[in-house]
Amino acid sequence: QVQLVESGGGLMQAGGSLTLSCAASGSIFRINAMGWYRQAPGKQRELVATITSSGSLHYADSVKGRFSISRDTAKNTIYLQMNSLKPDDTGVYYCNGDIRSSGYSSTSYTYWGQGTQVTVSS
């Protein structure tokens, strides 16, 4: 089994900062990529940021210059540092991982965390 557990969400005033964490645990053979997605009320889920096993980064245009994604490979953990928060950043943030589990299978699967609420007040 592979599980993703998010933490760090909460309430913050506009202009403030929050840091989200996502730890992958279980029978992990290799993590190909991990990232963050978010879903605002009444809107589609959208990509926020991703990081690959080689360290390649990608950010949504709406968060470039404000958010940064990083990783601690020894802990199988990624982080999302969110600065200069805006009310439009409000939503449920989901951790995502493209992960191959231990065993004889070479297939990788996509895993999702349960989500953590981020609310930014004006």
Q: What are the SSEs and their pairings?
A:
Layout: E1 2-7, E2 10-13, E3 18-26, E4 28-39, E5 46-52, E6 57-59, E7 67-72, E8 77-82, E9 91-101, E10 108-112, E11 116-121
Strand content: over 45%
Helix content: under 10%
Radius of gyration: 14 Å
* End-to-end gap: 41 Å
From N to C, what is the helix and strand string? EEEEEEEEEEE
Helix/sheet category:
mainly beta
The number of helical elements comes to 0
Largest sheet, strands/sense/barrel: 7 strands, mixed
Mean pLDDT: 96
> What is the 3D form?
elongated
Count of beta strands? 11
Low-confidence spans: none
In short:
By secondary structure, this protein is mainly β. It has strands spanning about 1-5, 10-15, 20-25, 30-40, 45-50, 55-60, 65-70, 75-80, 90-100, 110, 115-120.
Q: Which labels suit this protein?
A:
122 residues; mainly beta; seven-stranded mixed β-sheet; four-stranded antiparallel β-sheet
What would you say this structure looks like, in words?
Helix content is 0%, strand content 61%. By secondary structure, it is mainly β. The strands form 2 sheets. Strands 2, 4, 5, 6, 9, 10 and 11 form a 7-stranded mixed sheet that branches. Strands 1-3-8-7 form a 4-stranded antiparallel sheet, with no helix packed on it. The mean pLDDT is 96.
